[in-house]
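quick one before i forget lol
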Amino acid sequence: MIERVETGIAPSSAPINDAVRAGKHLWLVAIAEDPVSGEIVVGDIEAQTRRCIDNLEIALRAAGGDLRNLAMVQIFLTDSADAAGMNAVYREYFTAQPFPVRATVVVKELLAKGLRIEMTATAVLD
């Protein structure tokens, strides 16, 4: 049984959930949006990366976990030059083993205007 996790993050106008759960497994998506207004964060890749990870953390906490529960993170960037800034912020959040498995890809564009990064993740809850 798959169930929606109510994260409290501003809902999308599309048929999308920020997090769904099946048993101990949790699937998440995060963009650089203000969790209250839903507006895309204006700023550099560091600001957008920080907001993405903070939104992942909000969703994880709503499900009863935290960033240590992440097993895999997939990151989508619109510019390969942003990788260094994204990695610098990522290192602030993920400081101890085991780190999540991670893939980072560069895409032509993301759907929201001004969006430079999007993340999907999988977590295993206790």
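fyi Residues 3-124 form a domain with the 60s Ribosomal Protein L30; Chain: A; fold (CATH 3.30.1330.40).
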